[in-house]
Amino acid sequence: MNLSSSLAPIVDKLKELGVTAEESNISEDTTATNETTTTKITYPYEFLLRIPKADLHIHLDGSIRVSTLIDLAKEQNISLPSYDEEELKQMVFPPTYTSLVDYLAGFGYITKVLSSKQALERVAYEVALDAYDTGVRYIEVRFAPQLHAIPGKLSIEEIICSVNLGLERAVKDADELDKLSGEEEMYDNRYNGEYNKDTVDKLEMLFSGKVHPYNAAAPPHHYGIICCAMRFFLPDTSPYYQAFWEVHTGEDQHRVFGLASVALVQAITNLREKGKCCHGCGSSSIEKEQNNDYILPIVAVDVAGAESGYPASDHKEAFDLAHQGFLNKTVHAGEAYGAESIYSAITDLHAERIGHGCNVFKWEIIGEGEGRGGRSKSNKEKEEISDDIKRAYVENLTRYLGGMRTCFEVCLSSNLQTMPKLNGDLRGHPARKMIQEELAVTFCTDNTLVSHTDMVKELTLAAEAFELSPGQLRNCVYNGFKRSFMATKRYRAKRDYNRKVISYYKKVESEFGFTGYSTE
């Protein structure tokens, strides 16, 4: 449908109602002061560490420990530019990048080392435990199994199950740290021979004087797995994709991208329905059944990768299958393309959350992105889309997103690296306006290694740049739990968990004197 003709009636209706661009929510000013905050509040590091947090957008590969990357490369005889941690960071994972291409370059090395079950389990364990060490209570780890699969050697199922084992182990260790956090008597007697080295090491960490987030009164740790389809790939992207291209030689490339997504969704659906995986996860599932948890918590499908020129519509068949199978959907959109990309994510792919979404308010770039086949709109087509039509389009899109509580997974450190127009100043980040318009926003890490961040840093950046009141900060944190895709068989189990989160959050707030602030 022609964008101009389809949106003209909307503009007329807005005019009838007396709504002008100045009264709408699409003002170009993204640096307006926060009306609900009269005094800038500084949040102590310990407060931001201890409050329960959810990280809904964290990539497994981009969050590997650099020391682990080096270890795995040595074990597998994979060449790296350097085997010194600091030097490798400077060469491959610097604090800033000149372009998105540079930002993504390091992933090539990471993907190579994640080619065995043992490596995948180790990295999953470490990524989750690193998150839990910063006070994250719920994490949704995403990755593309197709990037690691090797036909005849390492299957999609084995990859997902290996990651699941690592995440399970991290939850067990983190929950144990919660229990041990109140055992000062045990700490005093740690060398009497009654406790094993692992327990002694944990006690040493808890009572060493270093600030930590573990507390027996805190809600338990949980996780979910999100599998990513890819908007674009080549035969040399991975052994799996090479085999896939060979089977589909001669077909339109966009059709191939879509078929690969269908294959992924079908594999996920089959794995979820099996009840247990190739590792035997679920063979001793009594505790999980009592807690209403799925054996394999594959909670959603995502599509990531090159955005402009590789539209969401390529993956409509796959996401229709996911939708029909009650699998949640989150989509990277509005990062390297405009509001049309977000519109396509919610209409073609049934997206319930949006990864990044930074261009949601940029009405002026509508028509500039590359559509199907990589073709930009002609000058004539662009001229047919008036500014009023563009503004109305964004006005109605954001109203819909707000009404449906479609959550934006905002990753500030990552955006600072890939959005040069910010010039290193987050005060111009669109998340400010998202919060002002009371859209659903949660802050996430994206890639803890590549972006040199963690959840405490992300909340610190947000609080300082947007001058968040305690109520606004609380809302953003709560959104992470409320809009999660937690793998519970009964919705009430998620509600019960969220009540524990809210209760504990308020407890920490009270300790630091942040009570009495409205969420409005």
Description of the structure:
- This protein is α/β, with parallel strands linked by helices.
- The protein contains 22 helices and 8 strands.
- The chain has helices at 3-16, 45-50, 66-75, 85-92, 100-105, 107-113, 117-132, 156-180, 184-188, 197-206, 239-247, 253-274, 286-290, 316-324, 339-348, 379-384, 387-403, 412-418, 431-436, 455-466, 470-482, 491-512, and strands at residues 53-59, 136-143, 222-230, 298-304, 328-333, 353-356, 407-410, 441-443.
- The chain has an 8-stranded parallel beta sheet.
- The protein is globular, with a radius of gyration of 23 Å.
- The relative contact order is 0.14.
- Residues 1-37 and 282-292 have low confidence and may be disordered.
User: What's the β-strand tally?
Assistant: 8
The residue fraction in helices comes out at 40-55%
The rough form would be described as: globular
Element string (H = helix, E = strand): HHEHHHHHEHHHEHHHEHEHEHHEHHEHHH
Low-confidence stretches: 1-37, 282-292
Sketch the major β-sheet: 8 strands, parallel
The radius of gyration is: 23 Å
* Main sheet strand line-up: 1-2-3-4-5-6-7-8
**Mean pLDDT reading:** 87
Proportion in β-strands: 5-15%
Instruction: Give the number of helices.
Output: 22
| Alpha carbon gap, first and last residue | 39 Å
Determine the structural class based on helices, strands and strand pairing.
Answer: alpha/beta
